[in-house]
Amino acid sequence: MHHHLIGPFWGNVIIIGVAGAITVACFVAMFWMLLRPGEADPHHPKYAVLRHDR
């Protein structure tokens, strides 16, 4: 039985591959920014939330 909303096999593979690559890229960017944020200004607003005494 073939459902009318299912596209061609290679089209599905390409869409799944692109979506997977974007997801992996987002996770890589998240960990990169978490571990190496690059912000060293002590007056940056994030330090009001991320104080050392918490």
Describe this structure in words.
The chain is mainly alpha-helical and 54 residues long. The chain has two helices and no strands. The N and C termini lie far apart (59 Å). The model has no long low-confidence stretch (mean pLDDT 82).
In short:
The chain is mainly alpha-helical. The protein has helices spanning 9-35, 46-49.
Order of helices and strands: HH
- Radius of gyration (Å): 21 Å
- Quick one: biggest sheet? none
End-to-end separation: 59 Å
Q: So what's the oligomer here?
A: single chain
List the helices and strands and how they pair.
Layout: H1 9-35, H2 46-49
Tag the structure with descriptive keywords.
single chain; 54 residues; mainly alpha; rod-shaped
